[in-house]
Amino acid sequence: MGDLIPQVEIKDSLGETLQYSGSVNQTGIFLPTVAGNPIDHVSIRNAIDQPFASRLEFSYDGGTNWCKLAVGEARDDELRGGITQIKIRAAGALTSCNYEVILAKGPE
Q: Which of 41, 77, 101, 104 could form a disulfide with 20 if both were Cys (CB 3.0 to 4.6 A apart)?
């Protein structure tokens, strides 16, 4: 009888996935509110259920550079460089904007 390959169950329990949704003003907020483990993947969506003129801005460098999303637009990015927070804010003439964000964070 030949050697048997050991049966090992591998469970991926490292890291966490965080989900955020709500309304943000022009001052903006950091997600997550407290920096922690590095963010591996981020999905940002400017929610569809709001006025057409609503624009959502996001920044991966603490608010130095910004990218905009129109209503219904989304962005998915794999982040590198140990980014622990993103910043989002409302842009344009309206004072608030609805957002949906999912962050996948790795271990420390």
A: 101
Q: What is the pLDDT along the chain (108 residues), one digit of tens a residue?
A: 567 676 766 655 678 999 999 999 999 999 999 998 999 999 999 999 998 889 999 999 999 999 999 999 999 999 999 999 999 999 976 689 999 999 999 876
The whole-angstrom separation of Cα 59 and Cα 50 is 21
Burial class of 66 by CB neighbour count within 10 A (0 to 12, 13 to 18, 19+)? middle
Please, are residues 98 and 29 in contact by the beta-carbon 8 Å criterion?
no
Q: And the tokens for 60?
A: 């991966």
